[in-house]
Amino acid sequence: MNPTIVLLFSGKRKCGKDFITDHLQAKLGDKCEIIKISLPIKSYWAKEMNLNLNELLSDGALKENYRLEMINWSDKMREKDYGCFCKVACENAKGKPIWIVSDVRRGTDIQWFKENYGNKIKTIRLIADEDTRRERGYKFKSGVDDVASECGLDNYSGWDLVIENGRNRDSIEKQLEKIISLISV
Ligand SMILES: Nc1ncnc2c1ncn2[C@@H]1O[C@H](COP(=O)(O)OP(=O)(O)OP(=O)(O)O)[C@@H](O)[C@H]1O
Q1: Ligand 1, residues at Cβ distance < 6 Å
Q2: Which fold has domain 5-184?
Q3: Do 35 and 89 touch, CB atoms closer than 8 A?
Q4: Tens digit of pLDDT for each residue in 1-49?
Q5: How far is the CA of 133 from the centre of ligand 1 (A)?
Q6: CA pair distance 7, 160, nearest whole angstrom
Q7: Where does substrate bind (predicted)?
Q8: pTM for this structure?
Q9: Which site in 40, 88, 157, 177 is 20 to 30 Å from 81, CA atoms measured?
């Protein structure tokens, strides 16, 4: 079964992509599935390096230790097929009507979803001020924060919704309400 709606979430490091999409999933329940484009990348990396996949998926230090290498390896793969990780990541979600893609990072990610799911996609940008992101553990790293995986969508202007998740954020309930209103239009 194809999805009826595909929500694409984007935002810079520590803006709260996992936090917001986890809460959204808890609210929507069985109807939805979270898709992480980074999952096939991390699965490969965990296998190759003999790492704990769950730890690599969590908000801990392991992810940061390997982030740069994972970006560089995955960019090489994308040069051959820009949709390769999007395609594999979606396999797990087949059967659910609402797809929540929690880590859209590049124009080619949006392009791939548009090509495959057309007007079912809605794009959401999460923003947070740098101080708040720093409090959550963000620290600028050259090769990570100044390359396409982090900045690829900085100049994208077609967002269906922009959500503030920094110092001036609304309550999570209000944030979720705004997102859910996209599903019903
Ligand atoms: N609205 C919020 N209220 C309270 N804590 C938050 C909020 N948003 C995010 N956080 C916390 O900030 C930290 C970073 O958030 P999260 O992991 O969701 O960011 P991310 O955008 O997914 O980061 P990354 O790009 O590194 O994967 C987490 O510990 C999370 O619980």
Answers
A1: 11, 13-19, 59, 136, 165, 169, 172
A2: Rossmann fold (3.40.50)
A3: yes
A4: 789 999 999 999 999 999 999 999 999 999 999 999 999 999 998 998 8
A5: 8
A6: 10
A7: 165
A8: 0.94
A9: 157
